[in-house]
TrEMBL record:
One of its GO terms (molecular function) is phosphorelay sensor kinase activity. This is histidine kinase. It catalyses: ATP + protein L-histidine = ADP + protein N-phospho-L-histidine. It comes from Micromonospora arborensis. It comes from the Bacteria. InterPro entries: HATPase_C_sf, HATPase_dom, Sensor_HK_TwoCompSys, Sig_transdc_His_kin_sub3_dim/P. Its EC number is 2.7.13.3.
């Protein structure tokens, strides 16, 4: 680690320790108020986030899935109530224990910085004291002990602040993070709800396909068969009436083309052939090119992506851009697809009027079902007035 980065770490650690001291004292003073469950969880969440940032680790909070409803993914997990309440006395104690040495160190450095050039400005009985109990009575003492105290305490801070801050942060995360058993129980509950969602989505998809085939393609094929039967009968009754037969055959031909178009639409809704032909990059290029709003596409190096994930990404982007065209009144949109380790991220943005909400039937609920089926996450940021950003993350390491 370079010297500059080390000093930056020392500074961040010092601020963290002083903040922990302040929060520990505040916890003691406001303990009755913080025993309110909502405030206790907020207080605990704030400490967990700052501890995670200090350690440079991913936040201990993870997206939490709800079984159903408007927001199947609802931001960071709130610390469990029992752990939030446990953190109150732990924070009061550890904040003071870890923060007080930092305050003494920083305070005495500041004292030495002030006392060295300005010792004479204090009264005889109020002369500053260096090294705890050595009064500054002259320039010799000031110029000798002042810089020495600054140097020693700065060296102490350089060595001690980072490990002290990391120790406090680890204690914080140990108290506030779920145990292995709790994480496993939560995971089992999430998978149970996900399985139910997948079964519901699968059933709805089968019903949709059946409805499309029955009401659309099958009806057209029946009409074609009837026209062909009438044409054959007309030809048998009056072979010279070529105009009637030609008209009936033309109607049957047009009906066949319409039936094929509908059938292709149903097939695309199951698995788009363009993915097999052109891959995810080519399929997304076709979708963004055909969008009614100018759309910029940025696809990173995705390596190998499972077909199921490709299909969900394709449907998510296609449905979202359809919503942009129909509802957002946007003049520009963007699609960015990237991969980090085993997570595939899709970000779709537009500069429209915002207010995207799956309760309005804009297709977000369908996207969410597909994403949840693969244990992914969906976040919608669409304030009234815009802009809108929809983020999808999917596991793709299997």
């Amino acid at each position: 680690m370079t010297s500059g980065r080390r000093w930056e770490q020392v500074g961040r650690s010092g601020v963290y320790l002083l903040g922990s001291l302040v929060s520990g004292v505040a916890t003691v003073l406001a303990l009755p108020l913080l025993c309110i469950l909502r405030l206790a969880r907020f207080w605990a969440n704030w400490h967990r986030e700052r501890a995670s940032r200090l350690l440079g680790a991913a936040s201990a909070s993870r997206p939490v899935r709800r079984a159903t409803g408007r927001r199947a993914w609802a931001g960071p997990v709130t610390v469990r109530t029992s752990r939030a309440l446990l953190w109150l006395p732990v924070n009061a104690m550890t904040g003071v224990v870890f923060g007080l040495p930092a305050l003494l160190c920083v305070g005495n450095v500041v004292l030495a910085v002030i006392a060295t050039p300005l010792w004479w400005a204090f009264g005889l009985e109020d002369r500053p004291r260096l090294f705890i109990d050595v009064p500054v009575t002259g320039w010799a003492t000031a110029l000798t002990l002042g810089p020495l105290q600054i140097l020693l305490l700065t060296a102490l801070a350089y060595v001690a602040f980072p490990p002290l801050a990391r120790a406090h942060a680890r204690i914080c995360l140990a108290v506030l993070s779920d145990s292995t058993e709790e994480q496993l129980a939560e995971r089992v509950a999430v998978l149970t709800r996900t399985r139910a969602d997948v079964l519901d989505a699968h059933g709805a998809e089968l019903r949709r396909i059946e409805r499309d085939l029955h009401d659309g393609t099958q009806a057209r094929l029946v009409a074609i068969a009837m026209r062909l039967a009438v044409a054959r009968q007309a030809f048998s009754d009056n072979p010279r009436d070529e105009r009637l037969v030609e008209e009936l055959l033309r109607d049957a031909h047009e009906g066949t083309e319409e039936a094929m178009t509908e059938l292709r639409g149903v097939i695309r809704s199951v698995y788009p052939p363009i993915l097999a032909d052109r891959g995810l990059d080519g399929a997304l290029t076709a979708v963004t090119t055909g969008c009614g709003v100018p759309t910029r596409l940025d696809v990173g190096d995705l390596d190998r992506v499972p077909p199921a994930v490709e299909a969900v990404v394709y449907f998510a982007v296609a449905e979202t851009l359809t919503n942009v065209t129909r509802h957002s009144r946007a003049t520009a949109a963007g699609v960015r697809v990237s991969r980090t380790a085993d997570r595939l991220s899709v970000l779709v943005t537009d500069n429209g009027t915002g207010g995207a909400d799956d309760r309005r039937g804009t297709g977000i609920a369908g996207i969410r079902r597909r994403v949840l089926a693969l244990d992914g996450t969906l976040e919608v940021d669409s304030p009234a007035g815009g802009p809108t950003a929809i983020t999808v993350e999917l596991p793709c390491g299997w």
